[in-house]
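User: Structure tokens for this complex, please. No commentary.
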Amino acid sequence: MERFYEVMFIVRPDVEDADLDKLIAGFEHTVTSAGGKVRSTEKLGRRKLAYTVRKFNDGNYVLLTIDADGKLVAELERRLRVSEPVIKFITVRMDEEQKRIDKIKAIRATRKKVSAQPVAAAPVAEDTTHAETAEPVAEAASA
Amino acid sequence: MTDEITSQRTPEGGAPSSSGPRTGGPRSGGGPGGPGGRKFFRRKKVCKFCTEKIDAIPYRDVRLLQGFVAERGKIVPRRLTGVCTTHQRRLTRAIKQARNIALLPFAARY
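Assistant:
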């Protein structure tokens, strides 16, 4: 079961672009060499921080989306904590959330297809009546 | 003996009143027998996330989150914003994550 995580970290603003790229490549290498996969890397650019972190008022935000398991994430976090240019990081687990979103989208897709079809079978008719009764109620409420 | 009865009555009296204001939904626009103060009347607000069908509330979306955060950085209660419970919980989680990554302040503007 592949879990996927979003790792966002802030790099000091006085780090140059080349060094930043090297740093990110180093983390990516950590992930791939331990059997994970990097889905995407996004550099969100320099932003003003909401509060002072280690005496810095702005920082370079980087977002890394990876497929990994727990141990790899622990290792990555250890490296982030140890590396000097990184001043803050957060790891968020996204797979359960994504599963939920996909489920909702699937339900919505079946409901939409049902209302688009002119021919309605028996179990399908229940869904259409459901949708139809929902709409007039909403119209009546707004009117 | 009468004292025992009254002391038993008060917890029961306490329980329904505490569950009443928390539900919030059924008492839309009514108020306790006629419009009293402005305490009960602002209930026509709908949950923004339910109407726009926003599933996920990402912590990265600072502009969206800032609409639910007060000036001093405090999270606005749902009776003022009209958000439903599930979305308020997700929103709170996202705001706290955003605070941790310095996208939102913990406390602002002394």
